[in-house]
Write a structure and sequence with these properties.
The protein is an alpha+beta fold. Helix content is about 40%, strand content about 20%. Helix 4 runs antiparallel to helix 5 (about 80-120).
């Protein structure tokens, strides 16, 4: 009988799989040898079993688990196969969305560091066009402008907890911003309005994204958290001297979104900004 069958080694070579893979498929009931020698335990396969092995390989390439493959092959039911593939298709789409979100986050991190490297020295004032951005955040529960960096870090921790509750990954949480309302900024009342994350458009809609519109922004660059209040005053004075009209809320953007300043927690590279209009 063995003369008409293929040894496990020949079956493996013919199909470019390992002997251990064929043994595993036998143990899982996916591909049972046509004959097993009771004395030696050697496994032998018929050449017709190549088609079943091809089907197993195909289903694995589609991302199906061995358990799913076994269930589908045992039932010999096309409707079950279709259902398994439909669910696998949705799983793949979900993974693609997650990868896209991660890719966007990595690109924003690269852009943030690049802006940091190429940005002007601390204290430099400028007028810049900034493209539209998407943010996800929450109202501030405490006014860290009246306290210190520990209060800010507490607010940031709460924001990251909310992020996790939304099912969003930590990778989104390294490009942070805070706001002061336009009215408070103009009156030099430093009351934290919102703390948020700059995120990509690919973040799920359930995250309730907000749009920060594109436009011209008056900006000042700083390298220390403790200098923000003084920098915000400089920014307002710059707008007044230049005849700019502040048209929206003040934003403090943390441009270095990684903990690279462990020895000095106050050290962050910031871009303070307000949207402005001006007479032509």
């Amino acid at each position: 009988m063995q003369d008409k069958l293929l040894s496990i080694g020949k079956m493996a070579r013919m199909n470019r799989v390992t002997i251990s893979t064929l043994r595993l498929y036998d143990e899982k009931g996916l591909l049972v040898p046509r004959y097993t020698d009771p004395q030696t335990g050697y496994r032998y396969y018929s050449i017709e079993q190549n088609s079943r092995l091809d089907m197993i390989a195909y289903m694995k390439d589609l991302g199906m688990s061995l358990a799913e493959i076994r269930r589908a092959l045992e039932k010999e039911d096309l409707a079950l196969m279709e259902d398994l593939l439909a669910r696998k298709n949705e799983q793949i789409h979900q993974q693609m969305r997650q990868l896209k979100a991660r890719h966007d986050a990595v690109e924003r991190a690269i852009q943030s560091i690049e802006r940091y490297r190429k940005s002007p020295t601390t204290g430099t004032l400028s007028l810049e066009y900034i493209d539209r951005r998407y943010i996800w955040g929450m109202p501030c529960t405490e006014n860290f402008y009246a306290s210190d960096i520990h209060s800010y870090e507490h607010s940031l921790h709460t924001l990251r907890q909310r992020l996790s509750e939304q099912g969003l990954e930590q990778v989104h949480s390294y490009n942070v911003g805070t706001t002061i309302s336009r009215e408070n900024f103009l009156c030099e009342r430093y009351v934290a309005g919102q703390i948020f994350l700059f995120v990509g458009r690919s973040v799920p809609a359930a995250a309730n994204l907000q749009l920060v519109d594109s436009g011209m922004y008056a900006c000042i660059y700083l390298d220390s958290y403790s200098d923000e209040t003084a920098g915000a005053k400089q920014l307002l004075d710059y707008c007044r001297r230049s005849g700019y009209t502040v048209t929206g809320d003040y934003i403090c953007e943390v441009m270095t979104g990684f903990p690279v300043f462990e020895n000095d927690p106050d050290s962050m590279f910031l871009r303070l900004q307000v949207p402005v209009s001006f007479a032509r």
